[in-house]
From TrEMBL:
The keyword Coiled coil applies. It comes from Sinocyclocheilus anshuiensis. Residues 298-352 are annotated as: Disordered. This is Fibronectin type III and SPRY domain containing 1-like. Residues 173-277 form the Fibronectin type-III domain. It holds the Pfam family SPRY. Residues 14-113 form a coiled coil.
């Protein structure tokens, strides 16, 4: 393919043209969204106009003898306002459509200019494009409708006004509130939205707050995947939404004020960021005896009945504790699994955990940043583990028994125990196992901490130098686990991490050494803190 050799001046023009094209493309998208807003508003003007006319006629029917003359006058007022709004919006729509056509033509011309090989023609075209962009109507338009679709300021209610029919006027409507972005707060999966009125209005009875989740940053779009949800009868100029699951990156918010008669215009909408760690169970990795759904996993003793008993016997034998080294297992070798996203595998495939490793991994890897999720076991669950592992954890290997998995383990069968496990070593934890466990991972600082999800008491912390992406990992036997994701890092956990600077009273108690360890789990009442020089 021939390449165009540009001198320094041509390169400057080329670079400027690339920026112009990007600007034009962004402007075209803005114009397209604005045209959709205008079309939507224009349609709603007609719908709402029809509705208020109908309401008006219904009121006049009961008092027709007195109100006949005023009915005609007020209906005309509505129609005039409708014509005025329609005219303003139609003019904007015409101008915006024309501007979009001009911008698209200019964008096409600019794209074609990139293929001009003659230096003189290219320079001439680039200057012409620059001049045309300066005068382009797309950059002189105000991308805000000159009229709204709200017609509630033309509604009437005669129930209290019959003695005063001769002086009847349209009801006053509250002005649109203003959301105070600096006072809005997103923390602990709660969103606090604050607003104020542009002028004091003593007749406001309540507010209506509306919100919706979205994947789009910036102003809300007319066409979005989610519908607006409403919180009615808000009495103050602030409201907190609690117990949210942040499964989208952003949320849109808008608010309107209401008096006893009508609701006013919506405030200008705002978009707040609501990022959190979302994942589910990877059913393609789960043991045959685990029944996996997106947010829950449950022990299923009938799950592996279709597997040949001889094969199962070999798998169980191979799952016995093995001596480990950096590159060798004395038992059956485990297949490597490094892909984060995999197509569904048939039951019994090689990448499923098997034998006595009743394990399932999360379907999303972590390779940077801070993350938090919670796990709640069933009350009668006999044994389970919660932690992290590398994706290449062997299919026979159990959580905490290798140098590439870290977990806390709860055993409620025969003899109760609650311990942190890694590299075939364990440390008993001197607290009762909580009803729900919070897991905090700071990948960059190499920290994995477990908390009581209810009171945020620190249970245990591992200090690790992660050498590859990690995934959430779970083991369950005779019971089930429920997963909660889309959670922000709780403020109590974040505050504790800052205070401790990554060092807790119970953390770093299991050595992160690479050399092989004994097969039997050794339980220590007290183990020395980890020497950072021994961390991998």
């Amino acid at each position: 393919m021939n390449q165009i050799h540009l001198d320094s001046q041509q390169f400057l023009f080329y670079d400027a043209l690339q920026r112009i094209i990007a600007t034009l493309a962004n402007k075209n998208e803005e114009l397209q969204n604005f045209i959709e807003t205008l079309n939507h508003t224009l349609g709603r003007v007609q719908v709402n106009s029809t509705q208020v006319v109908s309401d008006l006629e219904e009121e006049f029917d009961t008092l027709y003898s007195i109100l006949d003359e005023m009915k005609e006058s007020m209906t005309n007022t509505i129609k005039q306002d409708t014509v005025r709004k329609s005219h303003e919006l139609q003019n904007q729509l015409t101008q915006s459509t024309s501007a979009l056509e001009s911008a698209e033509e200019l964008l096409e011309f600019a794209n074609n200019a990139l293929h001009i090989t003659d230096e003189g023609d290219f320079t001439k075209a680039a200057k012409q494009i620059k001049d045309r962009v300066t005068m382009a109507p797309a950059f002189r338009l105000t991308l805000k409708p000159k009229a709204t679709d709200n017609m509630t300021h033309l509604m009437v209610d005669f129930s209290q006004e019959r003695p005063l029919l001769q002086g009847l006027k349209f009801l006053p409507v509250p002005r649109a509130p203003e959301i105070v972005l600096g006072d809005c707060l997103v923390i602990d999966n709660e969103v606090t939205v604050a607003w104020r009125m542009p002028v004091e209005d003593s007749k406001i009875d309540h507010y209506i707050l509306e919100y919706r989740k979205t994947c789009h940053e910036g102003l809300p779009r007319v066409k979005d995947e989610q519908c607006w949800e409403m919180v009615d009868d808000v009495k103050s100029t602030e409201h907190t939404l609690q117990g949210l699951r942040f499964d989208t990156k952003f949320m849109n918010f808008r608010v309107r004020a209401c008096n006893k008669a009508a609701a006013g215009d919506y405030s200008d909408p705002v978009t707040l960021e609501t990022r959190a760690f979302n994942f589910g169970f990877d059913s393609t990795s789960s043991h045959l005896n685990l029944k996996v759904e997106d947010r829950s996993v449950e022990w299923d003793p009938q799950g592996g009945k279709g597997v040949d008993s001889k094969v199962k016997g070999k798998e169980n034998k191979g799952s016995d504790c093995q001596c480990l080294s950096d590159g060798f297992r004395s038992g059956t070798p485990s297949p490597k699994r490094t892909s984060v996203t995999r197509s569904p595998a048939p039951r019994g495939a090689r990448d499923r955990f098997t034998g006595e490793s009743y394990t399932v991994l999360g379907d999303t890897s972590m390779e940077s940043g801070q993350h938090y999720w919670e796990v709640k076991p069933q009350k009668d669950c006999k044994s389970y583990s919660v932690g992290l592992a590398y994706r290449n954890l062997g299919k026979f290997e159990q959580l905490g028994k290798t140098n590439i998995s870290w977990c806390i383990h709860v055993n409620n069968w025969l003899q109760n125990s609650f311990a942190a496990k890694h590299n075939n070593k364990a440390k008993n934890l001197d607290v009762a196992a909580p009803d729900s466990i919070g897991v905090y991972c700071d990948f960059d600082r190499g920290q994995l901490s477990f908390y009581n999800a209810e009171n945020k008491q620190l249970l245990h912390t591992f200090k690790v130098k992660f050498t590859q992406p990690v995934v959430p990992a779970f083991m369950v036997w005779c019971g089930g686990l429920t997963l909660s994701t889309g959670l922000q890092i709780p403020s109590a956990v974040r505050s504790f991490q800052k205070t401790e600077n990554g060092l807790g009273g119970s953390n770093s108690s299991i050595s992160q050494q690479d050399p092989a360890v004994a097969c039997d789990i050794c339980l220590y009442d007290k183990l020395p803190s980890v020497d950072s020089s021994l961390m991998p």
